């Protein structure tokens, strides 16, 4: 395994200078500010399509009127928007640009708007997929969108899909890396339910249902999975780029270069950085705990929602409490009051891995090097979260999850006072503008 080749840019983009004017910068900031003022959170209790007023947002139509008038617009599942910018050459595969978070979508539309104003007419059809919820929602509009796209275009008809994801690591071991995620970890939601007799809190048993559940969670946390570095993991490609282009620790470099020593390399990587550890280790986290209705009544049922699968590990602990373990896909026997039940309401396998040697990778990588400079290394990376692109696996084997932002460009993601530096937003627009031009110029085996 080696670090991918670093191809040159396919086209030069002299029109990028327009994005550097103070007038454009102010307008872009105001447009993004207006977008983030619109309440667009995804809720687990979303109502049916056409009935939940929280989906009735119309900022994009009012803001990008020239896109709505120039591109073909299709409404998907009521609130989803599919923009089709028809290309002049039907022999070329289409590209899909999509995103969930507001800055990414505004960046895509701003770039397309600029190209329309410049009089650009694509040879390759460009599809802009604007979803109205994210992967954690109840409706999951990406499924509706992918089925709508697959119907006319069929399987493997897309050159590549761009979605938001990993970004740019500036001054990382003495080097700048652009790290598009070319694969995603698998994921599973596990629910552990503890059933006990309950009763009044004034006369509790030695171990209540809540106490037993806490003990099971602690057992899980005290027994983490071991880190593993394998050739199937996109992080391995990134690790090879580190050995070739970065100033990494002397004890790590020889371990990465020798496949037989990868177990040692995995332990070294896991010990130095929690984020890197998450890329090579099955992680686990308790996110939801439910149980009880009042403080003086012991609940009969308590449960926790987890991100892991455990059966053998919990058996000794369940036996200690003299309970019956009900495994996955098993029903609780009628009348049984002392049990621990394991359920898996959601399981997703790891995604296919996007190729990173030639093909569409050249267009993607060339775009990044053109804007970030020849010294920037474009490296494959993995996605530790899960994206809506899982719905698009039938359409292409090239999916790039990326955002052209440095770590210093965004702050407090998904928490209070989340914000994005205006220079980072402008760089996103420039990058999307150039990506469309590079994709349009690409002619290769992936077509």
What is this structure's SSE topology?
Blueprint: H1 22-36, H2 59-63, H3 65-70, E1 72-76, E2 80-85, E3 94-99, H4 102-117, E4 126-130, H5 141-153, E5 158-172, E6 175-178, E7 181-184, E8 187-195, E9 199-200, H6 209-221, H7 234-245, H8 252-257, H9 262-272, H10 274-279, E10 286-291, E11 297-298, E12 301-306, H11 315-320, E13 324-326, E14 339-348, H12 360-372, E15 377-378, E16 381-383, E17 399-406, E18 410-411, E19 419-420, H13 422-441
Parallel strand pairs: 3-4, 3-5, 5-17, 6-15, 7-16, 13-14
Antiparallel strand pairs: 1-2, 2-4, 5-6, 8-12, 8-14, 9-11, 10-12, 18-19
Structure keywords:
about 450 residues; alpha/beta; 8-stranded mixed β-sheet; 5-stranded mixed β-sheet; 13 helices; about 20% strand; globular
Plain-language structure description:
- The protein is of the alpha/beta class.
- The protein has 13 helices and 19 strands.
- It has helices at residues 22-36, 59-63, 65-70, 102-117, 141-153, 209-221, 234-245, 252-257, 262-272, 274-279, 315-320, 360-372, 422-441; strands at residues 72-76, 80-85, 94-99, 126-130, 158-172, 175-178, 181-184, 187-195, 199-200, 286-291, 297-298, 301-306, 324-326, 339-348, 377-378, 381-383, 399-406, 410-411, 419-420.
- Strands 1, 2, 3, 4, 5, 6, 15 and 17 form an eight-stranded mixed sheet that branches.
- Strand 3, helix 4 and strand 4 (126-130) form a beta-alpha-beta unit.
- Helix 1 crosses helix 4 (102-117), helix 4 (102-117) packs across helix 13 and helix 12 (360-372) runs antiparallel to helix 13 (422-441).
